[in-house]
Amino acid sequence: MSVNHASSANTFNRDFDRTTWHDESLWFVRQKRDKAVFSVSEFQQLREVASNIKEHTLSSLDHYLIEFEQNALSNGVHVHWAANAQEHNQIILDILKQNKATRIVKSKSMLTEECHLNPFLKENGFDVVDTDLGERIIQFRNEPPSHIVMPAIHLKKEDVGKTFHEHLGTPANEKDPQRLTEAARQHLREKFVAAEVAITGVNFAIAETGSVVVCTNEGNADLGVTFAKVHIACMGIEKIIPKWQHLGVFTRVLARSATGQPITTYTSHFTKPRDGNEMHIVILDNGRTQQLGREDFRNSLKCIRCAACMNTCPVFRRSGGHSYGFTVPGPIGSILSPNLDLKKYSALPFASTLCGSCSDVCPVKIDIHVQLYKWRQIISKENALPISKRWSMKLLSTVLSRHGLYNLAGKIARFTLRWMPHSITHNTLLNSWAKSRELPHPPKESFGTWYQKNKLK
Amino acid sequence: MMNVRDRILSQIKVNKPSSLALNEIPVFMGDDSLTNFKKNLESISGQPIEVNSTNEVESIVNQLFPSAKKIASSIIPGTVSIDTSSDLVSLEQVEVAVLRGEFGVAENGAIWLPESNMINRSLPFIAQYLVLVLKKNDMVMNMHKAYERCRPGNYGSFIAGPSKTADIEQSLVIGAHGARSLTVILD
Fold it and tell me: Where exactly are the structural domains of chain B?
C-alpha cells in the first residue's frame, strides 16, 4: 500500500486546536535551535566543515569502514555486517540466543525502528524494553515514533497520564510531567539493573579508534550498557567519521541543531567492553549503498539525524510525523524513502512547499529541498505519480505550452472567479486547492493585455 | 561466493563518488574562563561551587546531602565501598557519587569523565546524585580543544548537567533515569 500523506494529514488536521498545538511545540524547538546556533559565531563555518568531513567520508567509505572494523576488532569488539533489515534482526536474535538472554533493554535507535527489530524479536519470544522515556510511552501505546528526536511529540500529557495509569499504575488523571517521569524512572531503573543485553544505536563511529559514540539526555544508553553483560550497537554504514578529532565538530552542531542545547547531557564513547563482557557492532546497508550510487541523492547520507529539518518544516509541523508512514518522517525522510520504494513513498517528496527552510537549518548542509524537487521529476518520469496528480499535471502542461489555450483559460478563470458564487469556485470537492485557502481576486485583464496597453511606445 | 561484508564493500566501491579532499578543521577560539564555564553549566541545570581546597569537598557534600547514608567516592572517605566488581544491589543503592572530572569545557559546561575516574562504569549513571570535583584551571574553551585533550580509552563520557528529559509535552524534567542533580565543586 502506498503512503497517502495528504489524506493522513487531513485526518491529523481534523482536530484544529491540537494541530495548532503541535505546530507551536515544534516551532518552539526551532526557536531554541536558533538561539543556540546564533550564539556560536562560527556556526556557519562549522556546517561547512561538518559537510566536508561527511562528503569526504562518503567518497572513501569502503576504506573507512575497513579501518573502523580493524580497530574495533583489535579492541575486542565483534563486528557483524548486514545487507538488509532481515539479516540485521537475525544477527541480533542469534546473539540473544547464544547468551540465553531474556532481559533486554534498548536505548533510542532509529535504525532498529527502520528494521522493525522489536516486532521481529517479539515473534521470536524476546521482549525488548525501550528505555528512552518518549519511546517507552509509545511502546506502551503500540505506536511508532512520530519524530526521530522527540518520539512522543504528538502526545499531550493527558495521553501519557492515561497510558501510565494503565501500564504503571499511576493515579488516574495524573498528568504532571514531573510525577509521570518519576514513575517511569522507578519502572525503568529496575529494568536497567536487571538487563542482560543492552541494544543501542550509534551517533558516530570513529574509523581511527574503532569507537562508537552514543548521545542521550536521559543517560539511558549508559545505564543499559554499563549494567548488561552484552552490548549490541547498531549502525548504518554512513555513521562513520574518519578521526577522533572530528567529534569536536559534530558534538558542537548536533544538539544545538536538535533541541537547542549546547551539547547532549551524555556524550558517551564506547571503545572496549568491560573485562568478561561482550560488545557487538552491527553494520547495516539496507539500501544505503544504492543511495550512494545516486549522484543527485547520495549526500542525503550525510544526515546526522538531528531533526532540525522536521522542526522547521511547515508541512511536518501541521501534518505530524505519522502521516509520512516512514521511520524517518519530514523532509529528510522524504528524500531517503523513495530510494527504498519509489511507488510506496511517491507521495512524500510532494509533502513540501519547497520553501527550502530544511536546507537552511541542516547542520551538514544537505540540499534537502533540491532533492525533494529532483525526486518529483523522477517520480513523474517513472509514472509513479498518483492518478489525480498525473492528469492535472498533464492538463497543466498542455495549457501552459499552448499560447492560445493559455489565454483562453485565463479569460475563463477571470470570468468564472468574478461571476460564479464562492460556494462553487471554492467547493473543495471540485477544487481541493481551496481547502483552507482563498483564491485571489481576479484582475480585470491579463498581464499580457495590460502590458500591451502600457508599454512605452 | 562473496560474503555480506565483501558485497557491501564492493558495492560501495562501485557506487561512491570520486575522491574528495578532507579539509583541515580551522582553529576556532573561544572563552576558556571559569566564569564562562560556570555560566554555561548553570544554563544546563548544573550547580557550580567554588572552594579553596580539596579538603573542603567533604563538608560541602555533607551540607548538600545531610541525610545521605550511601556515599561512594574516590576523593573523600565515602560510606560505601564500590569497586569494579561491585554487585548490582550495592550500585543501585548509592545515593551520592563524588568523582574527579578530568577537565571542563567552557563553551557548554560539559565535563570529561573517563572510565578510570568512575570507580565502576555504572556508578556515575546509577547514583541518585552526582558530584564532580574539577580543578579550577582545568578548562578548555571548546569541543575541538576537548577532543585534543582526551583519548578514547575503554570508555568515557562527557557529562553535561543532570539527567533530563522533555519527552512529555516539551516540559523539562530534571532526573530522568540517571543523576537527579549535578554539583560541580571547583577546587
Answer: 33-186
Domain co-membership, A370 together with A410: no
CB B155 within 8 Å of CB A214: no
Q: What is the pLDDT of residues B6-64, one digit of tens each?
A: 999 999 999 999 999 999 999 999 999 999 999 999 999 999 999 999 999 999 999 99
pLDDT tens digit string along A121-136? 999 999 999 999 999 9
pLDDT tens digits, A256-282? 999 999 999 999 999 999 999 999 999
Q: Nearest residue of A to residue B153 by CA position?
A: A271
Q: CA dist A82 to A79, A114, A198, Å?
A: 10, 13, 19
- Number of domains within chain A: 3
Q: Do residues A7 and A49 share a domain?
A: no
Tell me the C-alpha distance between B47 and B60, whole Å: 12
Q: Read off the DSSP letter of residue B146.
A: H
Last residue of a domain, one of A358, A378, A394: A394
As a whole number of angstroms, the distance between CA A68 and CA A71 comes to 5
CA distance B115 to chain A (A): 10
Res A435: pLDDT: 78
Tens-digit pLDDT profile for residues B91-109: 999 999 999 999 999 999 9
C-beta atoms of A150 and B8 within 8 A: no
Residue with cell 519511546: A135
A90 CB within 8 Å of a chain B CB: no
**A241/A205 Cα distance (integer angstroms):** 6
Architecture of domain B33-186: 3-Layer(aba) Sandwich (3.40)
Q: Are residues A338 and A413 in the same domain?
A: no
Q: Which range marks the domain in which residue A425 is found?
A: 402-454
pLDDT at residue A425, as a whole number:
83
CA Rg value for chain B:
20
Q: Across chain A, what does the average pLDDT equal?
A: 95
Buried b (16+ CB within 10 A) or exposed e, A90-102: ebbbebbeeeebe
Phi, psi of A303 (to 5 degrees): -55, 135
Query: Across the interface, do B155 and A290 touch by the CB < 8 Å criterion?
Result: no
